[in-house]
Amino acid sequence: MPVSLCGTWDMVSNVNLEGYMIALGIGLYTRKIALKLKHRKVIEQVGDQYVVKTLSTFRNYTFSFRVNEEFEEFTKGLDGRHCKSLVAWEGNKLVCIQKGEKKNRFWAHWIEDDKLHLELHCEDQVCKQVFKRVI
Ligand code: ECB
């Protein structure tokens, strides 16, 4: 059983969010604001249902899913697209494939050195974020 991702996590590093946002077609003004944010990630699990909240002073993004069950994702407040998303464990990584208009779109979460790691992929861009545990 992979180690639990649940908890409250605060961003400590954020590499190439700019490239990821450009790949998603986010406008210059929004990118400038988004680059300054420190995200908080809150991950909760009830049974096989996960809730992942990305919180910031500018916008929040919350979604919930069951592992291995495809669902409709609407990235409201991010790039505002609809995806058919599927989250599955790949070894110790929780991976979400986001099928839609954008090629090679997916993210992966895992724990390493007591930190929560996140890679966000879109087209040829990768944003790497690391979070430290708060609670
Ligand atoms: C929600 C906080 C960020 C708000 C930024 C606002 C506008 C920028 C628009 C698009 C940028 C795309 C992504 C921002 C980076 C991270 C936000 C959450 C990315 C994500 O999908 O995280 C997954 C994995 O934790 C859960 O949805």
UniProtKB/TrEMBL annotation:
Domain of life: Eukaryota
Coiled coil: none
Organism: Onychostoma macrolepis
Gene3D superfamilies membership: 2.40.128.20
Name of the protein described by the UniProt record: Lipocalin/cytosolic fatty-acid binding domain-containing protein
Family: Belongs to the calycin superfamily. Fatty-acid binding protein (FABP) family.
Record SUPFAM superfamilies: Lipocalins (SSF50814)
Gene Ontology molecular-function annotations: lipid binding
Domain Lipocalin/cytosolic fatty-acid binding: 7-133
